[in-house]
Design goal:
Layout lengths: L1 H16 L9 H4 L10 H6 L2 E7 L2 E3 L6 E4 L2 E2 L4 E11 L2 E13 L4 E8 L6 E7 L5 E7 L16 E11 L6 E3 L4 E5 L4 E12 L2 E22 L2 E27 L2 E20 L13 E15 L5 E11 L8 E10 L3 H4 L3 E4 L6
Parallel strand pairs: 1-9
Antiparallel strand pairs: 1-2, 1-6, 3-4, 3-7, 5-6, 7-8, 9-20, 10-13, 10-19, 11-12, 12-14, 13-14, 14-15, 15-16, 16-17, 17-18, 18-19
Length: about 350
């Protein structure tokens, strides 16, 4: 009898150490989904209900605030489905993930499903979850946020604007010829041309890349010294073409059919000059360089009017500050036709399920 007691005492600590240590992870996370045993292996992995839902301009996932309730109870997503793709860039390969849907694992049978996301109205539909295949539910939620309504509220993102540009009071200079100690001072002049802008606008943010070309008559004076002595101010005339590239970033305020935006950016411009002196000018005076350039910071504001879901008119005004050449500061204004698709404006809201059940 005593031997049995001793053996029992020796085995008791061993059995205690054999128990799994307490885990700080909730049991619901580490426990397998009870519905997994009721469906086919593929559906147990990817889910038998696949959701692809859009709210305004966003394809929403749980990370974006997507909430799914099944039979009145919120459920967690099973997994994010998609595929890995390979790309090549400058001889180097890489991988990129392309999401397709968010999977949910439901017990086979009839269910009432409701989906919702911030800024949009909930949508509900009934499904009979299968055990041997997946149902795809895709669609768009109705917009309820006033900021996101209308053609300008929530564009798909990309846009292109083409139009006319005028650079008003666009000085160029002074330009110094160090070899001959001569300075060319340009008079204020206007330049007229065109521009193209590629933009990406999402709700309250905007990023744009602009290319513009404008030209016009120019004039000014050259003075300084030469090997023959001082050169009195000598008038020159000609043409100047201003080519500019700029990146703009800022905030936007969508107001149904109108969007207002403002911000700053960084730009670079190059002038191409063709100038000459009048007959009888000092032969030792030199006309300005054929090519000159500078960088600048545009402080800009814009207004976009979109009478339709995809087309509108954009007007941009900006003041260009040249930190290293204040004499080059000037004002520019441009206006053009904009193509900017907005599916939230053109597509009717609703959720469609592959088995024919619809909202």
């Amino acid at each position: 009898m005593a031997n049995r007691i001793v053996i029992a005492c020796l085995l008791a600590p061993a059995s205690a150490f054999a128990q799994p240590a307490a885990s700080s992870t909730p049991a619901a996370v580490i426990a397998p989904d009870p519905n997994a045993a009721r469906v086919a292996p593929r559906e147990a992995y990817a889910g038998n209900l696949r959701l692809s839902i859009t709210c305004a301009d966003t394809w929403v996932t749980p990370d974006d605030g997507l909430v799914v309730e099944v039979d009145g109870e919120p459920v967690a997503s099973h997994r994010d489905n998609g595929a890995w793709g390979t790309y090549w860039l400058n001889g180097t390969s890489g991988s990129v993930w392309s999401p397709s849907d968010t999977g949910y694992l439901l017990a086979p049978g009839p269910h009432h499903v409701e989906v919702s996301a911030p800024g949009c109205a909930p949508a509900a539909f009934d499904v009979t979850a299968p055990a041997d295949r997946a149902l795809d539910a895709s669609g768009r939620l109705a917009v309820t946020d006033d900021w996101l309504r209308g053609p300008a509220g929530a564009p798909d993102g990309g846009g292109i604007t083409v139009g006319a540009m005028m650079i008003a009071q666009a000085p160029h200079g002074p330009e110094v010829n160090h070899s001959f100690a001569q300075t060319a001072a340009f008079d204020d002049h206007d330049a007229v041309g065109g521009f193209i802008s590629l933009s990406r606008e999402r709700r309250h943010r905007v990023l744009a890349f602009d290319l513009g070309v404008a030209g016009g008559p120019t004039s000014g004076t050259v003075q300084g010294t030469s090997a023959e002595g001082a050169i009195a101010p000598t008038q020159f005339t000609g043409t100047s073409v201003d080519t500019r590239l700029q990146l703009r970033a800022g905030v936007r305020v969508p107001l149904h059919s109108v969007a207002l935006a403002a911000g700053a950016g960084l730009g670079a411009e190059v002038w191409f000059d063709g100038t000459s002196f009048a007959a009888g000018a000092n032969p030792f005076a030199f006309t300005p360089e054929l090519v000159d350039g500078s960088w600048y910071v545009p402080a800009w504001a814009s207004a976009t009017l979109k009478p339709s879901c995809n087309w509108g008119v954009e007007v941009i005004g900006q003041y260009d500050v040249h930190p290293t050449a204040i004499d080059n500061d000037g004002f520019a204004v441009s206006a053009g036709i904009q193509y900017q698709p907005s599916a939230s404006c053109s597509d009717a809201p609703g959720v469609q399920v592959t088995d024919g059940n619809a909202l």
